[in-house]
Structures
1.
Amino acid sequence: MAHKKSIRKHIEVVAAIIRKGGKIFATQRGYGEWKDWWEFPGGKMESGESPEQALIREIREELSTEIHVDKFLHTVEWDYPEFHLTMHCFMCSLTTDALHLNEHEAARWLGKGDIHSVRWLPADEEVLPLILKELEVA
C-alpha cells in the first residue's frame, strides 16, 4: 500500500517595515500560538494581488493607515513546526500619521539601540540585520 507523502503547508505573506526617521514600527501579536511575540505588520496575499497591493491592503486593514511601498528589502524562507513561511519584506513609509491597532495588542517605534528589546518572531528576526543597515542610511 502506497503512503502519501505529507506535504507541508506553505504560507506566503508580505511584511511592511514601516520607517519613520531612524525608527521602525513593530507590532505585538495578540492571539494564537505566537501571542505576545513581535512582528512586522502585514499578511497573506490574495489571488491576483501583487505583493505591493497586498501590503497596502493589509496595512489599511490592520492599522487603518496608508503607506507608500518604498522598496523591496528581502524574502525570508522560514520553517515553522506547522508550516513553511515565505515572507516578502518591504521598506515602507507612512503617508499619514494616523495609526490604529485593529489586530495587535501593542506597538512600538524601535530605533537601532532598542530593536532587540522585544521578542521577535523567528522569521522577522532574520531580517533585522538588513533593517539595521537601512537605518544607518539617512
Note: The mean pLDDT is 92.
2.
Amino acid sequence: MLMGSPNDIADAKQIVEAVPQAHRQDLVNCVGETSIPDAIDLLGACQGVVTNDSGLMHVAAATGRPLVALFGPSSPEHTPPLSDHAVTLTHPMICHPCFQRECPLKHQACLSELQVDEVIGALNALLEFSH
C-alpha cells in the first residue's frame, strides 16, 4: 500500500510504474486519498511499514508495527521513531545531516544511494523478529 499527501502523487506514480506488471494487482495506491484518521487506521493494519522521516513515521512507530524509517537530510539522532520495532537507514555522507529540504550539492545521495535490498532486508529482519 502506498500512502502520502497529494504532493506525493507523481512520486507514487513512478513507484507503481517500477513494480512489475505481474505484481501490480497486489499494490494499493492511496496517495492523496486518505485523511489522517484513515492513515492511522491503515498503518495499524499493516504487517510492516517503510517510510521517510515524517509525521506518519511517528504514527507508524506509535502503532508498534515493524518499521523501517529512511532518513535523508534529517537525522535519526534528532527525530527517531520511538519504537522497539523500528530501524533507521540512511546512506552515510560527509555532508549528512544537512537538514535542507533540497540538497545543496544536488546529489541527494543520503537517500538515493540507499539500496532497495538493504531496505527489504531490514524489513524482513523486523518481520521475522516480530513473529
Note: The radius of gyration is 15 Å.
3.
Amino acid sequence: MTIAEKIQKDLTDAMRAKEELRLSVLRGIKSAIKYKETEKMKTLDEAETIQILQTLVKQRKESIDQFGKGNRQDLVDKETKELAILESYLPAGASDAEMDAAIAKAISETGANSIKQMGAVVKAAKAHLEGKVVDGKALSDRVRAKLS
C-alpha cells in the first residue's frame, strides 16, 4: 500500500470516527499531494510523496518554534499534535550511526578534504541514505564538522 493510499484510507476512517484534528491534517496532506500532482501533471511516486510530507513536517516545526517565542502555548500544542500525525506517515529516520557511516563513505568516495567540497559530500551521503528520512540541516552540520 502506498503512502497516498494509506492516507486516503485513514482519511475515511477519521471521518467515520469524527476525529477533527486527524481529519484536518489528512485533508491538508491530501491537498498538498493533489496540488503537486496537478503542478507536475502526473501522479507522484513514493519519494515525491515523502518529500511533501517532510516539507509539511518542517513547516510544523518552524511554527512550533515561532508560537513558542510568541508565548502561544495553545497553538504550540495544536501544531505538536499535527506534527505527530504527519510523522507517523514518514519512514524511519536515519540514526546518528547511519548518518556518520554514510558521511564517512561519501568522504572516501569523493576524496574530499576541505570544506569547499562539502556539497559533493552531502549529495553523496544523501544517496547512501536513500529511503530514509534525513534532516538536511543535521546532515550538512555533521559533514561540516567532519571536514573542518
Note: The chain has a mean pLDDT of 88.
4.
Amino acid sequence: MSGRVIKNMLTILFLFAVMLFVANCEQTFEPLKENDRYFFSIYGYLDATADTQWVRVMPIQEQLYPDGEFPEVTVTLEHLESGEKAVMNDSLFYFGHDIYARNYWSTMPLESAETYRLTAEKTDGNASHATVTLPEDYPAPIIDTREVVLVDVDDGLVDVQSIYIVTPQNSDPRVVSVPNVQSTSSASDGGYEVSISQGTDQRYIDRQITGPYSFYIRQIYVAVAGPDWVDFSVIDDRVIELPDGVSNVNSGLGYLAGIVSKTVPFRSCFDDERRLTPCPTEPRLRNY
C-alpha cells in the first residue's frame, strides 16, 4: 500500500485528534501543564496487508518543541500471541510554522485476526499503550460491470476509495483518492455493495486539480476494521471532544485501529511496449 495514499479513515482520526486537542484546552486537562495521568497521544492504524506500519506518537507536552527536539521515547510493537516484539523507528515530520510531529514505523509482519500492543515509554518509565485485534482476512473485492464494488465481509467495512494516478498538464504525477464509502449498501447475498461513479470521481478530481490532466491508473481501495473499531459517525460530538470520550490508549490519548486493506486494479493504460500511457478519453469524462 502506497504511503502517499491518504486514507479516508485516517482523515477521520486526524480530525478527531484536532477536536480532542481543542477540547483539552477548555477543560481541566491542560496539555501544556504538568500532568501525571496522560503520557502520550497515539493515532493511526495497524494494517495486516501493509509492508510497513506507521503510527503517530507524541508526548503529552509539558513544553513546546519548536525545534523538533522531542524527549527520548521508545515505541515497541508486540504480537501478544507469540510474544514477538519490534522497536519502531522514528521519523520527524515538519508541517511548517514550527510544527513538528514524530511518526514511528516498523516492517514487522502482521497477521490478520491477531492481537497487537503498541507501547510508548519515556526514560522515566511512564508509558502509554494501545491494544488492537486485527480483523479476519477476506477475499479480494470484485468490481462488476455496473461499476459496483462487491466486498465479501459480514461486518467492519470502514473505507472504500477510488485511487487515481493523475498527471496534471506540465506537472508531476499525483495520487488522488476519492471516497466512496458513503455509497455502501448491503448485498442481497451477503457482504456489501459500493456504487462508484466516474462522473462523481471526475468532479472530485476537478476540485483537486486545476486545468487539464490525464490518468494512468485507477484502483479501488477497501479497508475492513477489526472488532475494536469505533464508528465515529454515530457518536455525539460532545463525547468525542472529551479527553476520555473515545480512546483505546491506556494512560494516554488517541485511537489506534486495526485493519486489513485490499487494493485491486480497476483500469491501467499501457502502450504497445507495456509502458504506462495516458488513458484515452471516454464518454462522460473530460480528459481521463
Note: The CA atoms of residues 143 and 149 lie 5 Å apart.
